[in-house]
Specification:
Pfam family, one: His_kinase
CATH architecture of the largest domain: 2-Layer Sandwich
InterPro entries: Bact_2-comp_sensor_kinase (IPR050640), HATPase_C_sf (IPR036890), Sig_transdc_His_kin_internal (IPR010559)
Order of helices and strands: HHHHHEHEEHEEHEE
Protein name: Histidine kinase
Largest sheet: 5 strands, mixed
Helix content: 55-70%
GO molecular function: kinase activity
Keywords: Coiled coil, Kinase, Membrane, Transferase, Transmembrane, Transmembrane helix
Number of domains: 2
CATH class of the largest domain: Alpha Beta
Length: 348
């Protein structure tokens, strides 16, 4: 409604300004006559009628989508026809109102001069209208592109989250399987732990992000589950300040790093290994670290689908400002670090 109202305001205002200029020219040359007012109103009405019909024609026939040559040809034909209509109205009016002052003898040259005189404002109107239509089309295409990109990102995010759950369950079941024959009681306890973890996973499955506090609760359940398998070989220390506990991260982001720390660190050690989880905030960015004993044999060595998916999910949610780094901390420890923007509200 606002666009339609603006269109009519510009139509009336623009053609009134043009006819006012024409009336001033005629008045300066031939003197004031009330007939100029009626002639101006007739011209304004006809010009609005013609341009409005032009707008309807190009809209119905989708001229904006035509090849360039066809579009220019059609617009030029319409421009000539509209100008001819205004010439057909104004020549008799000029002959009648000016009377003996109308000394110009009609000829093809004079008619062409009249025609070009009216083509100028019509061409300006058409250019302005074409520009706004083109801008409107570009904005619509940009919105469609953004909606498509968001839909693609949402689909990719769902696929990545769907891949994470089987990966996590596989690791947990491996831990329990090792205990079935050795210690059935511990295996039963492990199944209970796994059930609790899966319940937490289902609750967060449809969320793009959860708080660090929620993620740490899940990690503690997971570490307690793994503690059944590794016993004194596994210990952990969590140093995450309360001020970032509500910061949002993708579900199972830290969980994946802890899984890798156990798989590539604790599992290959015969003595007690400490997993450290740290967090801090600096310059509106959250920095999270998972440190585990072990060695990173090759720089940039892949640690499986879990870490790869985590990297992709960070890119989808936060763009280039978020990233995961995996590197040796010293000769006996590996550091996995995550940097993401500080966001306190859940992304639905």
């Amino acid at each position: 409604m606002l666009r339609k109202r603006m269109y009519w305001i510009l139509q009336l205002g623009g053609w009134f300004a043009w006819m006012l200029n024409e009336a001033v020219v005629y008045t300066n040359q031939y003197g004031w006559h009330w007939a100029w007012l009626y002639a101006s109103l007739a011209n304004i009405s006809l010009a609005i009628f013609l341009t409005h019909q032009y707008k309807n024609i190009i809209k119905v026939n989708s001229w904006q989508d035509l090849p360039l040559f066809s579009m220019l040809r059609n617009h030029f034909i319409i421009l000539c026809l509209m100008a001819a209509c205004l010439v057909g109205l104004n020549l008799p009016i000029d002959q009648y109102l000016l009377g003996e002052n109308f000394e110009v003898q009609l000829s093809p040259f004079i008619i062409t001069q009249y025609l070009f005189n009216f083509m100028k404002p019509l061409a300006i109107w058409m250019l302005i209208y074409f520009f706004f239509q083109y801008s409107k089309k570009q904005l619509a295409m940009e919105r469609e592109k953004n909606q498509l990109e968001r839909a693609i990102q949402e689909t990719e995010g769902k696929v990545l989250r769907a891949q994470m759950n089987p990966h996590f369950v596989f690791n947990a079941l491996n831990s329990i399987r090792a205990l079935i024959t050795e210690d059935p009681a511990k295996a039963k306890k492990g199944i209970n732990q796994l059930s609790k973890l899966l319940r937490s996973s289902l609750l967060t499955e449809r969320k793009k992000t959860i708080s660090i506090a929620e993620e740490l609760d899940t990690i503690l359940d997971y570490l307690n589950l793994e503690k059944i398998r590794y016993e004194e070989r596994l210990a952990w220390k969590i140093e995450v300040p309360k001020e970032i506990s509500q910061a949002q991260i993708p579900p199972m982001l830290l969980q994946t790093l802890v899984e890798n720390a156990i798989k590539h660190g604790i599992a290959h050690s015969s003595k007690e290994g400490l997993i450290q989880i740290k967090g801090e905030i600096a310059s509106e960015m959250i920095h999270l670290q998972v440190i585990n004993p072990g060695h990173l044999k090759t720089k940039g060595e892949s640690t499986g689908i879990g870490l790869l998916n985590s990297q992709n999910r960070l890119q989808l949610l936060f763009g280039e400002t978020a990233h995961i780094d995996l590197k040796p901390l010293d000769k006996n420890h590996v550091l996995a670090s995550v940097t993401i923007p500080y966001i306190s509200e859940t992304l639905a």
